[in-house]
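The aim of this short unit is practical: by the end, you should be able to scan a pair of folded records and say something sensible about each. We start with the first protein, listed as its amino acid sequence and then its structure tokens.
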Amino acid sequence: MSDDALNRLTDLLRLAKAKGADAADAAMTDGQAVSLAVRKGALEKLERAEGAELGLRVFVGRRAAMVSTSDLSAASLEALAERAVAMAKVMPEDPYAGLAEPGQLFAGSLPDCDLCDPDEPSDDSLIQAAHRAEDAAVAVKGVVNSEGAEAAFSRSTIAIAASNGFARGYSSSHSSISVSVLAGGADGLERDYDSAVAVYRSDLSAPETLGANAGKRAVERVGATKPKSATVPVIFDPRVSRSLLGHLIGAINGASVARGTSFLGDKMGEMVCAPGIFIVEDPHLKRGLRSRPVDAEGLETYRRNLVDDGRLTTWLLDLRSARQLALDPTGHAARGIGSAPSPSAANVALLPGKDTPKALMADIKQGLYVTEMIGSGVNGVTGDYSRGAAGFWIENGELTRPVNEVTIAGNLKEMFARMIAANDWEYKYGMDAPTLRIDAMALAGA
């Protein structure tokens, strides 16, 4: 981390206090990004962005205001500090607002999470990677058109400082490739895709592998029909099972719990998943897409079981939500440049079970294997769940015909309690789950 960025923030904090702030914190990012798209062998988009942005939060008593700017000149920052203090003075009081106490701050050396790829790819290498992915996809027999392939790389540095003495920063990078194609004919077209994202570009799947997967998936979906309405077991492919994990993580977010808008808000210490379900968070995972060596309020981050053998062990708490709930913060604060800290999870994994995916569906006479979810019909207050889906029909333990235009429904509390995990977990997105089975779900189809 550049000392210049931290020095700039420290100077801004002094300026804010001189303007009348009782306390303040600030964050600054500086980075560059390139993204491109190809379609049918031609380059359709090539975009590059570079720049820095700074956000300042000030406190006047229990009143707080947040401002941001991309103009880092001395005059701009002085005006920013003055404007922030003036805004804070007219804001309503927030009894839970405030910085960490000095004794709460993480004082050690930041753990090395290896979050920044030192090798920046050339534009040509990204273009070639996208071409390779698309070429492999359209080469699959049955693929009739391409929606294109994209490749991207970004690198950024973030610095955070506060008037309580916190001043840290680190750099991170992300690389990605995606490809999407169509298969079918006069009776209809089916679309599918594959993608990969990683901290280091060398950790990405080969473009040819992604392309072949996308083409194969699209072809397998050709001829999809709507199944009959029924109540059956549902198997969630890892591409979509992670969305269930996301719903659980959202329900244990301290801000939602404090507002009374979480369907798990009264379940601390209780069984929320089936026995044998373990959900682990590891913010220090090497090259983790959601790793963070320290949280955005200067508190320590550490590995923990969020769900331990089915039992909920913690909320995700930043300082504000912890104060609302009269609990200790858990080091889960994250922030954007223009927004105040809020709770957010780091790398989360629903750990694998013992059975293979094939064994997990072996006893299913009639059921649904879901590969794609559509829409977002989830009630965070009640846990009611209803989403569109597509995938394959299961008969006598085997995948048979492709299906689409089906809605699956249930309640997340009951779904989590019936959840069974297969053994095919792999790290891909920073929030990952293996194949999951949930019995007795309602399907609305033909």
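Turning to the second protein, read its sequence before its tokens, just as you did above.
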Amino acid sequence: MFEQVAEPIATPATRGAWLRDWRVLAIDGFDVDVADTPGNVEEFGRTKAGNGESAFPKARVLALTECGTHAFLAAQVGPWSDGEQTLSMPLYSRLNRGELLTADRNFYSFAAWDRATATGADCLWRLRSGIPLPVVEVLADGTYLSMLTTKNIRATRRQKILAAARAGTLADCPQAVDDRGLPVAHIVRVIEYDIPDREGNGTGELIVLVTSILDPQAARADELAEAYHLRWEQETAHDQLKTHLRGPGRILRSRLPDLVHQEIWAWLLVHYATSVLITRAAEAADIDPDRISFTRTLRIIRRTAIATADISPSGLD
């Protein structure tokens, strides 16, 4: 049911949901405590910390989220032992042209980037340190073009591909594809900036972003930096789901793995419906959906549901 219902809900009138003509999305994960039963332990597993284990089994949920509306558009549910990169791979095929996917530095791999951009969507991802970014061309706005490559190619081949990229002949370079005709390199645009430290010791944090939007005229560096930080809206969606909709500290009640999966999808459905209601109300008032309280909306929904349940079916004849 979630797969049939969930779709992007922001319209051109939705504030805070767009970077120019791109719909801004984010990908991230969260964990869910489930009932402590043998079946759930076997299905989902426990986290390990120090010499002990978590009190409850934990399911891991990876989701694509529409940043401006906090709506979950697609998700993967798996055991705690499945890493975020593993669960995220099937979600990239759900992307569409005209969307801009943001992701933090834990998600990058060449395979993930290749799969996401193959859909026609654009990406804006932060890279962790240690990933080489050779300069292909310095652009007028201070950003520069670089090249991402797979790990399983030799240094001499990588240098040939880089030389072709700098010469503008990458499309004609036979070393730039593998035996199946698939690319082993992608040109990206790099945006670097620092965030002033909060403690005042003068150290700041360097942020390195790569994007498939290569033309500075299509999106300025400051616009992309601002769009990347919209990914934190997904953390708000997680808080709405886990703290306000489920309730703080509560454990999912299902004692069988199949019912845990069912409960998680129902949970996501209710959050999606609430996000739709908030977004439509925000559009009617011409305000950002962030300005409408999720908690108050949830109270209104619950009161309405209870009031409707009080009507006797016999009175509907």
